[in-house]
């Protein structure tokens, strides 16, 4: 992964793996206190021949075997000692083996303690499966066929009662996102508004750039909106409490495990999460291989629309394959404008950094937004937003800049329309966006079972701690699978593109909302104070 030229030693030390370098304090409760002689050492630590550690009391010389220190997920999330190491912790806490364990222990329907198993899958995950299947079989396979086969696998091989895609949840999230932007523009919050659907970006901002938190949208991501739909709305329809539903989500990104584990998305009354477990596309594919399921084989009726579908399926939101947040706002603003507006696009740095501008007939800028993918571009946006909004950028790579760039900007000092700042930025941490997430299938084959020319892409298989994104050609295939039968990328959506979905969305919002709307569709962010010790910095 390429980093900004301003990256410094302290930034490098943020990226560690859970090991002895973890600085989170660990507390152990002692059963009894033994009186000590004044000035004597309270305990000694001894190591036996097997390498086990024993705490030896000075008085009795009796050894007590020490337990291995355990760092929970909440400990990891509440600590700013590193940025990405929490992902390694999550692999053991949220994995396909955990899904199999819960499903295997689930009592039969009708028995006491039974939980209704529900699975939701992101369209980016379906696109990755479709691209891999098309590459291996030499026969193009679209997302709808893959979705039907995934539904059949989850129902027949795993016992899931319901399988949904998350595009309708995304539809709800986009509506709420546009509503929040309108509120901010009317004076109810800070601008530019930054997208909130990428948990990698949110985690980075909370730990390294707390000054950016007021700019991040509070609207929940499609994953968490789906959790609300399953546990709250569908649960009420089924006569089930939230803790009587087991919700698994398939996502293209490991950081989605982090997102699902946030305390904001837990129901304290029923002691359950909106999304109980998140697995990646790769983990779903591994489940299929372990169960002997061939995704290349068609299933009956895979081209037919189910007559009893609860939600609209595989909804298209033209714009970007990472959720179309920017293009949805552009479409809403264009529809609300009293006169036609012109939409222009400027490439700033490749396909991962684009600027979009709406101008009226007189040439005045109505809206300026950007699409920003990848960590390097993300840092540049942090600097730009801080400079234009008059806030000082904190620590981290984006904070290492000259005094001129750090200076606060006086409000109203922007000169002319060309100096106008962004109104909105669609931010994603992964280069290429969500179709290139770390949990997606890799191009054929690497050490995980796919053929791949690692030498050509310049990635070594052996040192595995770092994230490895696929090459550009493979990303294009996944992108093409995502936009099957549509232009790549297609134009901005029209406001009335999904009247049936809008009608259902209105009904759901009416049934769930009122005073609960803020809690059900929006969230909060908290700055994580640094606890890194100076002595712990590696030189």
UniProtKB/TrEMBL annotation:
Which residues does the UniProt record annotate as the domain Iron hydrogenase large subunit C-terminal? 117-438
* UniProt keyword Translocase present: no
Q: Which domain of life is it from?
A: Eukaryota
- SUPFAM superfamilies according to UniProt: Fe-only hydrogenase
Is the keyword Iron-sulfur in the record? yes
The record ties this protein, via InterPro entries, to:
Cytosolic_Fe-S_CAF (IPR050340), Fe_hydrogenase (IPR009016), Fe_hydrogenase_lsu_C (IPR004108)
Signal peptide as annotated in the record: none
Q: Name one Pfam family in it.
A: Fe_hyd_lg_C
Q: Which GO terms describe its molecular function?
A: 4 iron, 4 sulfur cluster binding; metal ion binding
Alphabetized UniProt keyword annotations: 4Fe-4S, Iron, Iron-sulfur, Metal-binding
Q: What does the sequence similarity comment in the record state about its family? A: Belongs to the NARF family.
Instruction: Give a short account of what the protein does.
Output: Component of the cytosolic Fe/S protein assembly machinery. Required for maturation of extramitochondrial Fe/S proteins. May play a role in the transfer of pre-assembled Fe/S clusters to target apoproteins.
Listed name of the protein: Cytosolic Fe-S cluster assembly factor NAR1
This chain's source organism reads Athelia psychrophila
């Amino acid at each position: 992964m390429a980093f900004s030229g301003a990256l410094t030693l302290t930034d490098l030390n943020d990226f560690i793996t859970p090991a002895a370098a973890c600085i989170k304090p660990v507390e152990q409760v002692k059963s009894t206190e033994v009186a000590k002689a004044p000035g004597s050492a309270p305990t000694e630590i001894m190591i036996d021949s097997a390498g086990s550690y024993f705490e030896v009391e000075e008085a009795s010389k009796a050894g007590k075997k020490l337990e291995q220190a355990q760092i929970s997920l909440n400990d990891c999330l509440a600590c700013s000692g590193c940025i990405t190491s929490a992902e390694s912790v999550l692999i053991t806490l949220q994995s396909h083996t955990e899904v199999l364990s819960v499903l295997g222990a689930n009592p039969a329907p009708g028995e006491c303690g039974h939980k209704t198993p529900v699975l939701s899958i992101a369209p980016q995950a379906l696109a990755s499966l479709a691209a891999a299947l098309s590459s291996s079989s030499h026969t193009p396979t679209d997302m709808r066929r893959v979705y039907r086969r995934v539904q059949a696998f989850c129902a027949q091989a795993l016992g899931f009662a319901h399988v949904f895609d998350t595009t309708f949840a995304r539809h709800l999230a986009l509506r709420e996102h546009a509503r929040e932007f309108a509120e901010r523009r009317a004076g109810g919050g800070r601008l530019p508004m930054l997208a909130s659907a990428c948990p990698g970006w949110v985690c980075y901002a909370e730990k390294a750039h707390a000054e950016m938190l007021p700019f991040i949208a509070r609207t929940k991501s499609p994953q968490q909106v789906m959790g609300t739909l399953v546990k709250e709305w569908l649960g009420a329809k089924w006569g089930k409490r939230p803790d009587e539903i087991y919700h698994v989500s398939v996502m293209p990104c490991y950081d989605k495990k982090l997102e699902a584990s946030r305390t904001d998305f837990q129901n304290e009354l029923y002691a359950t999460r909106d999304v109980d477990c998140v697995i990646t596309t790769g983990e779903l594919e591994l489940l299929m291989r372990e169960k002997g399921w061939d995704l290349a084989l068609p299933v009956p009726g895979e081209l037919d629309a189910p007559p009893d579908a609860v939600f609209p399926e595989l909804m298209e939101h033209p714009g970007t394959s990472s959720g179309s947040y920017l293009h949805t706002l552009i479409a809403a603003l264009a529809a609300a404008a009293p006169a036609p507006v012109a939409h222009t696009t400027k490439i700033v740095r490749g396909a991962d950094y684009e600027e979009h501008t709406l101008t009226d007939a007189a040439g005045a800028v109505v809206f300026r937004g950007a699409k920003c993918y990848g960590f390097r571009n993300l840092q540049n946006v942090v600097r730009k937003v801080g400079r234009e909004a008059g806030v000082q950028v904190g620590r981290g790579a984006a904070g290492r800049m000259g005094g001129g760039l750090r200076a606060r900007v006086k409000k109203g000092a922007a000169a002319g329309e060309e100096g106008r700042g962004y109104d909105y930025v669609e931010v994603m941490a992964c280069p290429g966006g969500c179709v290139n997430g770390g949990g997606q299938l890799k191009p054929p084959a690497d050490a995980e079972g796919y053929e791949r020319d690692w030498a050509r892409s310049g990635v070594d298989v052996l040192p595995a701690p770092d994230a490895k994104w696929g090459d550009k050609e493979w990303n294009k295939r996944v992108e093409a699978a995502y936009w099957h039968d549509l232009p790549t990328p297609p134009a901005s959506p029209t406001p009335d593109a999904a009247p049936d979905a809008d009608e259902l969305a209105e009904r759901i919002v009416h049934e769930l909302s009122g005073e609960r709307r803020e809690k059900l569709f929006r969230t909060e962010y908290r700055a994580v104070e640094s606890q890194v010790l100076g002595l712990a910095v590696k030189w």
